[in-house]
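Dear colleagues,

For the upcoming journal club I promised to circulate an example of a predicted protein-ligand complex. I picked one with coenzyme A because it came up in last month's discussion. The inputs are reproduced below in full, followed by the predicted structure.
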Amino acid sequence: MTKPRIAQNATPAGTRLLGFGSTQGNRIVTNDDLAKLVDTNDEWIRQRVGIIHRRLGDESQTVVSMAVEAGAKAVADAGLTPGDIDQVIVATCTMPGGIPNAAAQVSDQIGIKAQSAFDVNAACAGFVYALSVASDAVRAGSARNVLVIGSERFQEWLDWEDRGNCIIFADGAGAAVVGPAEEPEIGPGVLGSAGDLVDTIYLREGKYIYQEGQSVFRWATTQIAPVAARAVEAAGLKLSDVDVLVPHQANLRIVEAIARKLQSQGARDDLVVARDIVYSGNTSSASIPLAIDHMRGAGEISSGDVMLLVGFGAGLSYSAQVAVCP
Ligand SMILES: CC(C)(COP(=O)(O)OP(=O)(O)OC[C@H]1O[C@@H](n2cnc3c(N)ncnc32)[C@H](O)[C@@H]1OP(=O)(O)O)[C@@H](O)C(=O)NCCC(=O)NCCS
């Protein structure tokens, strides 16, 4: 008896980014505002973290509602309709309760009859994890167009008496659409974790974000640039081919350190570096697409630019991927 032959999906030649969208908390919170809550000051925050102000959500803004807003904008920016999307992935680590997930609600509220909708939690590395999964799904033919969203509402996860942490985090969402392409425009995701360092970022009392700031700072400034360089190599490019560096916006000093390290290894002096943290704060899995959407809107980057996206955070987890700006 001959074995039955298993069919597999038809596959496109490659994948590409088709569009972006974003939204932020409606409330602007300055460093002086925070100095009324905790013993801190504008100068310390600017010098040590680089934030001038961050944005927090008002009562109406949730992980789901911000994901819906950013996601709908990304679908429109891609020139698609909700009916064209067949997979929704939400990267988040601040979804209250965990059950139900965010993606099913987001999909429904945008009007997407998605065949699959699921959340990814790799904390601040989450967006690139989700992007990598999305690109692989399109590449394998199991989805045609995937909506990838990073959405976080941090304010309930912060101890507003802990000056080391409450000054850093913020609320917002950023989204991208990945679809098929004749010429590949997204490189392989380089993903990884360092679970032995799990105790450096965790929920204190099961409630509040806590991090050993200096340990995480050291790890991010020494271990992450090599991950970024591996993603460039995996895409078959050289560091000098990269036009735009978009690291997770954790701390401006970490962003600058990663850029300097890559420039010392061949990245160009005119490399455009995302510094969105200055006016957005650290929005975890939303920070990378949020930064890209802002830079596109401001005309700082253009269609066709080679971008290097780099995530890192709790887990510890890390991720990097090359993608061409739509
Ligand atoms: C958290 C972080 C901003 C703290 O900055 P830092 O320069 O390492 O500061 P430290 O924690 O060493 O604290 C230095 C001093 O400033 C004080 N300090 C902390 N927060 C302060 C604040 N908001 N305002 C004023 N002083 C503050 C500390 O109490 C300490 O005082 P001391 O020397 O008298 O003990 C920084 O370590 C960081 O960005 N770490 C990495 C974060 C990250 O990437 N996370 C992963 C992804 S989310």
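Two points we might discuss: The mean pLDDT is 97. The radius of gyration is 19 Å.

See you all on Thursday,
B. R.
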